[in-house]
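Hi! If you just cloned this repository, the fastest way to understand the data is to look at a raw example. We've pasted two of them here, unedited. The first protein comes first, obviously.
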Amino acid sequence: MNTVRINELAKEVLTIEANSILRLRNNIGAEFDKAIEILYHCKGRVIITGMGKSGIIGKKIAATLSSTGTPSYFLHPAESTHGDSGIITREDVIIAISNSGETQELLNVLPLIKRFGIPMIAMTGKLNSTLSNASDITLDISVEKEACPLGKAPTASTTATLAMGDAIAVCLLEKRGFSEEDFLIFHPSGALGKGFLYKVEDLMLTGEKLPITNENTSFADIIEIISKYKLGMVMITDKTGKLSGVFTDGDIRRTLMKYNNRPASPVKEYMTINPKRITQKDYAASALNLMEKYSITALAVVDENEKPIGVVHIHDLLRAGVA
């Protein structure tokens, strides 16, 4: 097979799989809503089970649910009939995955599930299958065809299943009001949680390190303050002590270019008014995002009364590993 044909085949695979996901949009309705309600009100854990490739996808769905506030566990259906089914309690909810809906190892678990009276959600491509008929709710994950040219290897169907699992996890996350801080609890050492490890108050400069002056400060004095504190900016306050502006290295250059010399008017005539700011309780990652969005290297930190209490610098954020 030549390179051109390989590229065409790869594109065809991606198109088939993308279409399989888009097709799922038509399957989101009353059954999906019922599934979310059952999972949301589950007092135990969500037990996910599936065989073969469906099992591999099931493990990923269980991991995603667990990391976003829905305690989940993957149960291998073959092992479940050899003692592992002991993890199931009457407080749990089962999500059973089988594209055919006739996977024997999965069907072998049904008697125990029925005996316990546990709610069961089927994720299957066959709505009239044994698994679907035995379930309380069926989520349709059917695809028009597999991406495999032979039509045998699970490809589009597993992609669709994974996408449906992500849809479930995200909806539950939103319904639970799962926050950035909650996310950190489950990801304290990972790159995903790193950005939420610090609050602005943990990294900001305070006290004598702060370049603050009032609106009536002269241009010459402003240059002196900027040079002294080496943060590239000075926070300007009005007569009530609230942050009214900032004056930066860039403002110095722009002012000199405009007037060709040092102007005599106070800084309030040249400062940047209504500058970007952040509070000490915000996450450091939020400060970094604001800096990157507006090309800022130092950001004013204000209290509940809009009075400046600190400065957070991009170098300190990057040094702390916030990214």
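Ok, and the second one:
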Amino acid sequence: MADGEGRHAWFDVPGEDTGALADVGVQKGGKATADNGVLEIDADESGALAFNASTATAPPGKLEVVMKNPSPIQHNISIEGEGEGDVVGNGGTSRFTTSLKPGKYTFLCTVPGHADGGMKGELTVK
């Protein structure tokens, strides 16, 4: 059915993407907590541009940040301005050690386009 300007009415009806890209950048909503000086935030196994947690907490001081990558896409983990692990493929582990003061930090994947696509979250150090 066309409107008076020749457009079809279905162009103006929002829909829901259920295709392969529907979950790109969708965080799983989980929370990661540091344990014995290690903070593990894994990549989403489906290949979506997401971690398995969108928030994390850790105490101040020395911290090893670890990301296992079970996905078919290459990823890494970084804390903005504080350190960065290697980019790894399926089955790899990205890790680095840093020392953090109390505050809020952004963790992200630094592969071009991944953080912009939603592969990032907030770390609270307290």
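That's it. A detail worth noticing about the second one: Residues 23-125 form a domain with the Immunoglobulin-like fold (CATH 2.60.40.420).
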